[in-house]
Amino acid sequence: MFTFKIDLAPFEEQVKRMDAAIDQMPFALSRALNDAANDAYEYLIEETWPKAVKVRNASFLRWALRTKWSTKYDLEVEIFDNTPDQRAHLALHASGGVKLPKGAHLVVPTDNVSRGASGVRQSQRPANMPNKVVKGNKIYQAVGRGKNKHLRLMYILTPKVQQPADVPFFEDFETIMRESSQRHFAKRMMEAMRTRK
After folding, report:
1. Which of 41, 48, 96, 177 is close enough to 165 for a disulfide, judged by CB 3.0 to 4.6 Å?
2. What is the bridge-based pairing of β-strands 115-116 and 119-120?
3. What letter would DSSP give residue 70?
């Protein structure tokens, strides 16, 4: 989803200024990229996501995102959506687009639906919801007793949903990776030189 490939020129210049061995650069750069990817991962979770959307579940993004680390043979890091079928739609949040259903309709939860660490709670999902009432393109739950019994709107069924580009994942990832990889590189290069055989 978010991939960072490095431009080696600034790092080669830094190695020359440090008077270090160029053969240690891939190892040091890989470690610096991994440090930067960790910084970017934390920034996306702690800063980017909460500033852009209403967070109902604080641990959701940490559950959804995974990191593919670089090696000295492959200087590329990636942070990707690890949810089944990319159901978190994180790429759509980043670039915008249209969410389409796998079946006839998208089932859009209202604020009345409670969420857990993995999204909507099992007991609140349409197939499992007790006292479910379907009217047209809406799913309600009958709540209360006697005179106080009423319908609470839980879901709206729709053929598609327009998702605006509302989370600057790409921009923040690129910025953090660029700044952080350069910040970590000098330290990692010194470590590589100390352990050089």
Report:
1. 96
2. antiparallel
3. P
